[in-house]
Design goal:
This protein has a seven-stranded mixed sheet. A hairpin with a 4-residue loop joins β1 and β2. The chain is built from six helices and seven strands, in the order αββαβαβαβαββα. By secondary structure, it is an alpha/beta fold.
Length: 173
């Protein structure tokens, strides 16, 4: 027999789970207003990215899945940058010195943003890594992906905006 106290705790945990599930920005909603500055000094906002497709990647240096997917993200950045894709790889919660040292050993071609230079991590509840958020050319959330799923999944996510089709150079396709 379950006593009333555990029932209340179970109900509270269930309600909290439902709240967290639905509190994240859903697809087809306008992207929250943001400001982001890359470590190279480039500034991005909702207004400056209007008409472009934006892929936000939330990552950390200690996340083995983030490390594994970095090459895919960089590959997509190179392939679609001239077609209007902006990739912002947002490092979450790590000091600038640590991130810069990491990037010396693991260079990235996409734009890197530190959490201190943006309000995006809090908006998208970045607490499991990697997290991808795709914003379409109209500034609407086109889709999200929580967790690593490989290049093919990232391409499928990009396809929601007309980018990310098959790539003849890819072994994963």
């Amino acid at each position: 027999m379950i006593t009333p106290r555990p029932k209340r705790q179970l109900l509270l945990a269930l309600l909290l789970s439902v709240f967290l599930l639905f509190s994240a920005t859903a697809a087809n909603e306008p992207a929250p207003r943001f400001n982001a500055t890359t470590i190279a000094g480039e500034r991005f906002t909702n207004a400056s990215t209007k008409g472009k497709v934006v892929l936000l990647e939330f990552w950390t240096t200690w996340c083995k899945f983030c490390v594994a997917e970095a090459d895919y993200v960089d590959k997509l950045d190179k392939q679609y940058r001239d077609k209007g894709l902006i990739v912002l790889a947002i490092n979450v919660g790590e000091p600038k010195k640590l991130v810069k040292k990491y990037l010396e050993q693991h260079p990235r071609s996409c734009r890197i943003v530190l959490m201190e230079d943006t309000n995006l991590a809090a908006m998208y509840q970045a607490n499991v890594y990697p997290i991808y958020v795709l914003i379409d050319r109209d500034g609407t959330i086109a889709g999200t992906q929580r967790g690593a799923a490989g290049e093919r999944a990232l391409r499928r996510l990009l396809m929601r905006t007309g980018l990310g089709g098959s790539n003849t150079d890819s072994d994963d396709e």
